[in-house]
Amino acid sequence: MAKYTRGTVTAFAPFDARADAEALRKAMKGLGTDEETVLTILTTRNNAQRQEIASAFKTLFGRDLVDDLKSELTGKFETLMVSLMRPAYIFDAHALKHAIKGAGTNEKVLTEILASRTPAEVQNIKQVYQQEYEADLEDKITGETSGHFQRLLVVLLQANRDPDTGVDEALVEQDAQVLFRAGELKWGTDEEKFITILGTRSVSHLRRVFDKYMTISGFQIEETIDRETSGDLEKLLLAVVKCIRSVPAYFAETLYYSMKGAGTDDDTLIRVMVSRSEIDLLDIRQEFRKNFAKSLYQTIQKDTSGDYRKALLLLCGGDDD
Hints:
Blueprint: H1 17-28, H2 35-44, H3 47-61, H4 65-72, H5 75-85, H6 88-99, H7 107-116, H8 119-133, H9 137-144, H10 147-157, H11 169-182, H12 191-200, H13 203-217, H14 221-228, H15 231-245, H16 247-259, H17 266-276, H18 281-292, H19 296-303, H20 306-316
């Protein structure tokens, strides 16, 4: 796994798991809960440290920290604290399991995770899914999806994207021409060509293909996808293209739209803030500021309230205005 260093949450020092466990127990014991203590401890320790706190909590009190959080907290604040406690290695597998369980499939979650994770991360998600849920992730996803959307998800699940070695300009030219002929020049669209090229070529190769495509067609590849495809496939193709261009920019946009307009998509806001907090949230903040002319911090501040807001702002880690 790549060593990520652009997160807002890093290991807390000096760290004392027992002292934190005692402080949390005191905060939740008896009548009422001291939410401030809970959110301050959990947002300022990294995931590995939170696991140590949970283990110390059980050792000292014979109680399950996550169960206590669930019984003492409510609403979005509870969801956020419980998400922070989920071991990092299982986070994505858990999100996917819940996206394909019960009535209706949450295509948004499938799209976000499978478009943005590296091949190594996808391999890891599949293994964890198998171990934790004794089920094959690909089978589960194919059982709940269909059409070209399903095909592209399966391609991404193979985690066989070409490695980033030197770019072959002749192949760049060829891929750009193939995409042009499969979309803009064709009556109807040959989706399969888009799926194969966008799902399997290396990141550096595709960045060159997008530039070449613009030169050949006069369009950004996103404009063509927007015109030539629709529904879940369109959203997934666009997410793949955006992540090829820049994963932090993709997440900045995801966060922006989770808070734009009436109502907030709290599930997305929580999922992205928690899952990227130790990876690239600093880069996401930078992209957010650059692309939306305001800071992520101020957007969260305007859009949320209470302890939920306090915790999200601590995860955000600072204002960029």
